[in-house]
Write a structure and sequence with these properties.
It contains 11 helices and 11 strands. By secondary structure, the protein is of the alpha/beta class. It has 2 domains: 2-207, 2-enoyl-CoA Hydratase, Chain A, domain 1 (Alpha-Beta Complex); 211-257. It holds the Pfam family ECH_1.
Length: 267
């Protein structure tokens, strides 16, 4: 396990990397240190070919409530950064959303509690989301006098449609875990006593799949809303053939015929 005061990173033998936000006393609100460590951890996991699944979660009662407004408050005691410096710093940190989306590894947000602001964007950037009973989702930006970051509005619009995304961002109401499941924001809701076990089971299930095929499925789904049908069929066909020519595809066929569980190597 690699740790700092604000982020914990661990990887098991099956290729599951778990990133835990670790400011439980602030419901894992993002300060400068946490943001920088989070970017570092995401970069390390997406660059590691041995990582097949990335789990993002929080320590304590919260997943992440977004930026730490108390920590970011300008007290006027010293000159603050220029607008250009603020933009550059934020844009560098928001890049982690792009990294998660583009990663060949599957990503899971294990939403163990309050999830708001930039924390909502972080959860939405993952491929799948599961929630613990009692978890609450909220945009929270309007109440803070902010327009939003971490691509939450982009991600939510593509997930739920423009009308629902506007409702969630403009009315800024709290969404329960059950309501999030009904809307399709989360895959499942689990009781607190089973939450960690269910997250581990989901991660293990994903880690046991064929990595090249999974990565190509992610690319197909990302391209589906951006390409014309003809262009999409081009890239989908090429990826299907690429997957067909892997050792993992041969292993899947052999395992089916031999009535056993396949063991995929990522080749």
């Amino acid at each position: 396990m690699t740790s700092s005061s604000t982020v914990l990173l661990e990887r098991d033998a099956t290729g599951v990397a778990t990133i835990r936000l670790n400011r439980p006393e602030r419901l894992n609100a993002m300060n400068d240190e946490l943001l920088d460590r989070l970017v570092e951890c995401v970069e390390r996991t997406v660059d590691d070919p041995a990582v097949r699944v990335i789990v993002v979660t929080g320590v304590g009662r919260g997943f992440c409530v977004g930026g730490d407004l108390q920590g970011f408050k300008d007290d006027g005691a010293k000159p603050g950064p220029t607008p250009e410096e603020q933009y550059a710093a934020l844009r560098k940190r928001v890049h982690l959303i792009e990294l998660l989306r583009a990663s060949p590894a599957a990503s899971v947000a294990a939403v163990n509690g309050a999830c708001a602001g930039a924390g909502l964007g972080l959860a939405l950037a993952c491929d799948l989301r599961v929630a613990r009973e009692g978890a609450v989702f909220r945009s929270a930006f309007l109440a803070a006098g902010l327009s939003g970051d971490f691509a939450g509005s982009w991600l939510l619009t593509r997930m739920l449609g423009e009308a629902k995304a506007k409702e969630i961002y403009l009315l800024d109401h709290k969404i329960s875990a059950a309501e999030a499941a009904r809307l399709g924001m989360v895959t499942a809701v689990h009781p607190a006593v089973r939450f960690e076990t269910e997250v581990q089971a989901l991660a293990a299930r994903l880690a046991a799949t064929a990595p090249i095929a999974l990565a190509n499925i992610k690319r197909n789904l990302a391209d589906a809303s951006n390409l014309s049908l003809a262009d999409f069929c081009d890239v989908e066909s090429q990826r299907h053939i690429d997957s067909y020519r892997t050792e993992d595809r041969a292993e899947a066929a052999a395992a089916f015929l031999e009535r056993r569980t396949p063991v995929f190597s990522g080749r």
